[in-house]
Design a protein that fits this description.
two-stranded antiparallel sheet; 11 strands; Arc Repressor Mutant, subunit A; single chain; D-Maltodextrin-Binding Protein, domain 2
């Protein structure tokens, strides 16, 4: 078994068929079928179940798949390492919470782009759960997520601390008053948002459970809904303070243990640290990121 065998195996698993995998690999189906048969004979276990619609992984195939993906990532890292001469250049894909992007990253991204014009920087926003998954799959080289993140395959460094506040329509002077509304809803981002989970926990401790949710894809949508009196939300104070000063919403403080949240930068522990990523980390927070570059 070698890397080429695993590449063919992964292609078949992802495509769901020998013929479709052959098209992706630029070869003929007979070659793919022969490679898979030889691999199964070498391992002495069937890797695929054949059926009229194509193939699906057997339990043995599912166990092998993570290793095939890991080998593919390692080979890609090897190529990038060989081509990396120390000058920041090439693609750099970073993930971020939408709130962190809005609050913290604009000056950093502008300064980084100016300092390193040879780097093709792309920023992807998502929930903490989505971003952690993408970093682990190495579709992102790193991401700003809500901490704490504890995963054996990730390096996590705290870079910001935020104060979270409950936001409601300005007609509510207290959170308890808002919670008494019959049609109260939680105004949140989609599932996987760490603020959403924390909001549900905070309200549950106050006896508010089973509250219906309104899901939005943007912070602006959430604020507009809260301002209209349709629900309560939880967001960083620095992000929603301008709306409070404009009289659009009311903010309600929380105890320190509920209000403080860490924003961490995560990356794969065994992933290749490119010159572009190292330069980004150094520019972001030199002191805090020093550990992440080791």
């Amino acid at each position: 078994m070698d890397a080429a065998d695993l590449r063919v195996f992964a292609a078949v698993a992802q495509a769901g068929g020998m013929n479709r995998a052959a098209g992706q690999l630029n070869t003929v189906q007979s070659n793919v079928t022969a490679r898979i048969r030889m691999l199964e004979e070498e391992l002495a276990v069937p890797l695929f179940e054949r059926h009229s619609r194509g193939v699906t992984l057997t339990p043995a195939g599912r166990r092998l798949m993570p290793y095939a993906e890991r080998v593919a990532r390692l080979l890609e890292d090897a190529k990038r390492a060989a081509r990396d001469d120390g000058a920041p250049a090439g693609p750099l894909q970073i993930g971020s919470l939408e709130t962190t992007a809005a609050l913290r990253l604009s000056p950093l991204l502008a300064a980084f782009a100016a300092a390193h014009p040879a780097v093709d920087l792309a920023l992807v926003t998502g929930t903490s759960a989505e971003l952690v998954e993408q970093v682990l799959a190495q579709r992102l080289q790193g991401a700003f997520v809500c901490g704490p993140v504890r995963h054996p395959d990730l390096v996590a460094v705290t870079v910001f601390r935020e104060e979270l506040v409950l936001a409601t329509a300005p007609t509510f002077t207290t959170v308890d008053e808002a919670l008494m509304q019959r049609e109260l809803r939680l105004v949140v981002l989609r599932a996987g948002c760490s603020y959403r989970q924390r909001l549900e926990e905070i309200l549950a401790r106050r006896g508010a459970v089973g509250i219906r949710r309104l899901e939005f894809g943007t912070v602006d949508g959430i604020l507009g809904c809260a301002a209209a009196g349709l629900g309560v939300t939880l967001l960083p104070r620095a992000l929603v303070e301008p709306a409070r000063r404009q009289g659009r919403i009311a903010l309600h403080e929380l105890p320190c243990e509920e209000a403080e949240v860490e924003t961490q930068f995560i990356r794969c522990r065994d992933g290749f640290l490119s010159s572009a990523l190292a330069a980004f980390l150094a520019m972001a927070r030199p002191a805090d990121f020093a550990a992440a570059a080791e």
